[in-house]
# Entry
Amino acid sequence: MPSDLEIARSVPLLPITDIAQKAGIPQESLEPYGRYKAKIDTSALPQKDNGKLILVTAITPTPAGEGKTTTTIGLADGLRRIGKDVTVALREPSLGPVFGVKGGAAGGGYAQVVPMEDINLHFTGDFHAIGAANNLLAAMLDNHIQQGNALGIDVRRITWKRCVDMNDRQLRFIVDGLGGKANGTPREDGFDITVASEIMAVLCLSSSITDLKERLARIIVGYDYHDQPVTCGQLKAQGAMAALLKDALKPNLVQTLEGTPAFVHGGPFANIAHGCNSVMATRMALKMGDYTVTEAGFGADLGAEKFLDIKCRMAGLTPSAVVVVATVRALKMHGGLAKTELANEDLTALEKGIPNLLRHVSNIKNVYRLPCVVAVNRFPTDTDAEIDFIIRKCRELGVNTVLSTVWAEGGKGGEALAREVVRLCEEEKGDFTFSYELDASIEDKLRAIVQKIYGGDDVVFAAGVKKQIKKLTELGFDKLPVCVAKTQYSFSDDPAKLGAPEGFQVTVRNIKVSAGAGFLVALTGDIMTMPGLPKVPAAEKIDVDENGVITGLF
# Structure
């Protein structure tokens, strides 16, 4: 089987002008970045009714892989093959995972968005603009202190960090401002990865330049000597930051291998941020198609929960159907099987692991009250007995299971899933409900997520967190939604607890406000906002020859 990169290069691409025409985007709204990429100016877009929104999520991820992005793209192509007018809305990949563990992140096999090299490496420069805006604010903050500190900022309580879109553990904790008075004020500092920056969340949740500037102005960068928050607006940085972000705010248009219009824009991680592509791209995609297929990061306890409780709440979106992606291989890993043993039929391991899938499905169906289908990415080693077992267990929850072969067959392998999604949209009306209400206390919101979505007993607050909650409540931030930063490998905050663990508690060790994004961030477990590279980084295999041909991206 050829590599993903070889497959992507084997398919001739349509000019981006043809893709825009297919999506109903007028020529005056198109800002081409070469022949196969473009940004879309929203000001000249025609007003149309929204299409139906389809969310693709997945079971708790394992090293065996689930194929969520691949399924999202293959489903969109499958919908087009059965005659539906469809668009797809995805996140942009971060350079951190591209050079770290995952390699490329633009789908796989014959279900990819292209040009995959560009999408994986810099794309249209959005992440660089986000990093520049983030670091401009950091520079203006430190300069304000250097020039007399009129706002009385307590240098021990600065919360704003610089960022870089790279996995670089060396930058997690640093001391800067050394070298004497002319070189700043010495203080402890650190970097986040760009996808964890609040600027990323702000850009992805903004609906216009005006909204962007208002959100930027609300960002809290630290606290003064009177324990009051200091904002970006007080530093007068929001205008210059918005100027850096004006093009990054415009959604990007590319295509799938089968020519389906794809809006790829924004990329917050789901384990440390809210894990969804931009509101502007999703809204644009909904105007350009009768069906829009989108995805949320990692498992449904992370990406889907934040998509539904944060993004849908803020943007007024309601999904018409949800697809939960699973593989037999991954479920057997949740049942305790080693990665080297996954090719063997093992119904005992599958029975132990399938509660993970059933909990995710139950959450979508019974907590959020949305129509749901399970998509099983079939591997050649999966047996009929294993597939039948999954179908039977899901049917007990009133949910159908559809086999997907989009990796090997593209849209053709997604036609059955497409038909079931259309049926759900037309025949099963959901009664969309959030997992918590905004007027609940911060503690009760967290408790609702832990108990309803994770299946845990309760939430525990580390020393000092109750004080943080009290302060946030006094400042009026208690009515914001909550974004839980948690390991993606378990329903719990312990990555070793696979399957559907019970009887556990989730410990919140820190809680802070992202006032610009408009949510609270609760940090659990050992989750970090700056990942590190693995022992053998994917970067070691990536290369480019004298003709500019890149190799090693998958």
